[in-house]
Structures are given as structure tokens and as C-alpha cells.
Amino acid sequence: MAEVWQWVTHEGLVVLPYVYWTLDVLLRLVSLVVVPRNRRPGSAIAWLLAIMVLPLVGFPLYLMLGKAQLPRRRREKQQAINRLMRVRAHDIPDSELDEDAPSWLQSAVRLNRELGAFPLTGNNSADLEIDYDTSISAMAADVRAAQESVHVLFYIMGLDEVTEEFFAALCDRADAGIAVRVLYDHWGALSHGAQYRAMRRRLDDHGIEHFPMNPIQPIRDGAFQRPDLRNHRKMVIVDGEVGWMGSQNMIAAHYDKPSNIRRGLHWQETMARFRGPIVSELNLLFATDWYYESDQTLPEETVVRHSPDTSGTYECQLVPSGPGFVAENNLALFNQLFYSATERIVAVSPYFVPDESMLEALVTAARRGVAVELFVSEIGDQFLVFHAQRSYYSVLLEAGVKIWLYRAPTILHAKHVSIDDSVSVIGSSNMDIRSFVLQMECSLMIGGTDAMEKIREVEATYRSRSRELTLEEWRQRPRGMQIIDNLCRLASAVV
């Protein structure tokens, strides 16, 4: 042993460089074979660049973060969930589109049914709410009226002075013997430590069942699980008859962060309140997430039910997406609608980092005469994403896309798309690579003249609070800022 140690001490410094360079070359060669497999070219190039620059760091990161899929056992469970969802969705009756609906809308409906299993439902009604605190109060009021069940799912959820009334309503119903079930994303909620802990204590004190979604356990189900595969949905379903969904998290508008409070940052959201058969689809999606985290199968009669309120005129279809689905459902839906548009596209997204196919769809639409408007924030809360999205402004402006910058210090966090005067999509999905690949999202396609009028009112409000970015102004931005934007765009491709 002493001789071995002596050899290592004297010869190790000589041998170590050879070992290092051998491993360096080996990792580079292996990455050329492994990384491009079943991956977008842009993402593959970004990963290869990271590995080629520093293989001993880049390759281990690739092994941890390079695969946008759940571990094998979790994938098997998700496949079982998808099969169950398709079976139960058959109990929801299909609806026919209005006679004056464009032909391409029927294709979108068929695409969505194939991607997410959910049918088109008619006779729905909806109201939109864009005031942050008012929407929380309205959701709390609906919860207080619950007679049978309350299902809650949010990416970020925490107890603070703004959300107190919502949690008080949950506890009141639980104390009355109503079944209250709560899901929240583990990382999304955990990142707000004090509010997260206060929420858990409150729920526990009142015996409310709650589970963190995609809990951060690096080694789970027998394999490494990416920590950034998150459930980004936001939903509240009361008695299977009233459903809320959209972009808003259950936390104060400044997210309880001292840095946000100092800067005056607060979030602008859009939430939708639904009644009618579509609520069963929302409830079914919640049930699949509940099973995914709790192993509890909710009784079908409490999930899929005939709505007593069928007086609405809206046609609605739910489109779930995420790493548990084979296709990138939200991206496929957006692209199909963009290519179908003949008159107008309005896209509202806080984080706009499209892949090549979406960028091409928007640019092509603008160049063939479609009026394309993009609403984004004037300032950002995430450095990398904010600068990455700015790198796309030039090509969009040159193609004729009108970009509206929602004025600071507000972060426009709402997410919706409207196409012509035919259809809109509202939900939790951003137009960025993370939402397309890594996050479980919930989008809802809505048709109907009255629905479009409400969407247009929201867009008009957002337009009044924004300023237009011109191509001339954009070309005059500092050269250093251009370099930062382009570097962040490259980094954003690493998924």
C-alpha cells in the first residue's frame, strides 16, 4: 500500500493530465452520438456547445437535465392516467360547431381531441376577470358556496394577507364536512418559504388533504428525475359546476418578494370563470393530477357529471400538455391556429421564447397580410427569459408584427391567443420552450361571438396600458444589450 501511495504521489501529477485529456476527448465523442438523438437541432447544438466548452461540467449537466421526460415508472403511471382520461372523457358528450364556424376550426377540434382526448363541449358560459385581488375574492366566494367538493390546483400557492380569505373559505368548507382537495407544485410553492409553510400548517389544522406536485426528489421511482419538470396549471373547481382557470397563482400580486416590493413590481393576470359541461373536463384533468400524486382514484360520478347549467352559448375544449404526453400539445395547437388565421392574431404571453416552428408561423402570418399583435412586458422578472425573448423582436418587427410593451412596473403574466373573430385560447401556457417541453399546462379553446367580445375588451384594456415598440426604436438599442439578448437566446435553447 505504501508503495502504491508513493507511486501516486510521485507519478500522479504526470498521469493525471493524460487521464483528464482522455476523458475530455471521450465525453466529446460520446456527446456527438447521444445528444442529437430525438432532439430539436437548436437544443442539440446548445447542449453540444456547452459540452464542447467544458466537457467535465457540461456532460454531467446533460445527464441530469438533458432529457425532458419523467422517469420510467412515472411515465408508466402517466400513460395509465392518459388511458383513464380517454375512457372517462367519452362520457362527456360531443358538441357540434356553429354553422358559420370556419372549416379550419373543425380541424383544430380534431387535433385537440387526438392530442389530449377531451371533446368539444357546447352550452358553456364564461366571465373574464383581470383584476388580481377581485379574482381571488370571487374564487373564495365560490368556494364558500360549495356543497359537495372543492378541488384546487395552483403552480404557486401560499398563505398571505391577500390569499387569507381564500384559505379561510377552504377551511370553512372542510370544517363543514365538504371534501376539499388541494394540489400545488412543490418547487413553485416551496420557493415562497414562509407563505408555503403557513399554508401547509393551515391546511393540516383543518384536515384538508393536500399534496405537492412533482415533489423534488432527485432519485425517485428508481431513476433520476429532472428537478425542473413542473406542474404549471391553475384551476379551482367547485361542486363540478363552477370552474376557474387561467394564468394567476394563489399568492399576493407582488409574490411576497422584498425585491419586487422595492421595485414596485406586481403581476397582471387573466382568469376565466366557467359554467356548463366544460367544468367536467377541468374536473377530470384535476382528477388525473390527483391520482398522479396521491394514488387515489376519484369516483367517476363526482368528476364527470351533467351540468345543470347549459344556458351558455360558448363552445369549449380543454387541451392539457406536458412531459407526460407524446406530443407538445400546446405548441401544436398554437401553430395550427396561427397558420389558419386569415385576418388577425393577438398573442399575450409573459415569456415569449418560441421554437423555430412557432416563430415561422407568426412571421409567415404577418407577411401574408394577417394583422399580428404581440403583448409582452416592458420589463422582466427573469433575466434569462426576458433577454432571450428580446432577441426575437427584430425579426418580428421586420415582418410587420406589432409589439406592445405593457408598461412598467407591472409584469404582464396573462396568457391568451385570439384568432380572427373565431376562437381564443386561454390558460397557463406561456409561449416559450419550457411550457412546450418541461411543464404540465392547461389550455382551453373557446369559440363563440360573445366570448370573442369579452376577449377583445381585455385586449383593448391591455393595449391602453401598453406602448408600441417600433422598429426604429429597437434598432437604436445599445450594442451591448444586443449581445446579452443573443447570448441569453442561445442559453434558453438548452432544454
Please provide a brief summary of the model:
The chain crosses the membrane at residues 12-33, 45-65. By secondary structure, the chain is α/β, with parallel strands linked by helices.
* End-to-end C-alpha gap: 46 Å
Main CATH class of the largest domain: Alpha Beta
Task: Count all strands and give the number.
Answer: 22
CATH architecture assignment of the largest domain: 2-Layer Sandwich
What characteristic shape results from the CA principal axes? globular
Total count of helical runs of at least 4 residues: 20
| Share of helical residues | 40-55%
Number of domains: 3
Structural category is alpha/beta
CATH homologous superfamily classification of the largest domain:
Endonuclease Chain A
Mean pLDDT: 87
Q: What portion of the residues fall into strands of 2 or more residues?
A: 15-25%
Radius of gyration computed on alpha carbons? 24 Å
CATH fold category name of the largest domain: Endonuclease, Chain A
For the biggest sheet, the summary is: 16 strands, mixed
Low-confidence stretches: none
List the helices and strands and how they pair.
Layout: H1 2-34, H2 41-53, H3 55-65, H4 72-89, H5 103-116, E1 121-129, H6 132-144, E2 149-154, H7 164-175, E3 179-185, H8 186-190, H9 193-205, E4 209-213, E5 219-220, E6 223-224, E7 230-231, E8 235-238, E9 242-246, H10 258-263, E10 266-268, E11 271-275, H11 278-294, H12 300-303, E12 314-321, H13 329-340, E13 344-348, E14 352-353, H14 356-367, E15 371-377, H15 383-390, H16 393-399, E16 402-406, E17 410-412, E18 416-419, E19 423-427, E20 431-432, H17 433-437, E21 439-447, H18 449-464, E22 466-469, H19 471-475, H20 479-492
Parallel strand pairs: 2-3, 3-4, 7-21, 10-17, 13-15, 14-20, 15-16
Antiparallel strand pairs: 1-11, 1-12, 2-8, 5-6, 8-9, 9-11, 12-21, 13-18, 16-22, 18-19, 19-21
Helix pairs in contact: 2-3, 4-11, 5-13, 6-7, 13-14, 15-20
GO biological process, one term: cardiolipin biosynthetic process
EC number: 2.7.8.-
Keywords: Cell membrane, Lipid biosynthesis, Lipid metabolism, Membrane, Phospholipid biosynthesis, Phospholipid metabolism, Repeat, Transferase, Transmembrane, Transmembrane helix
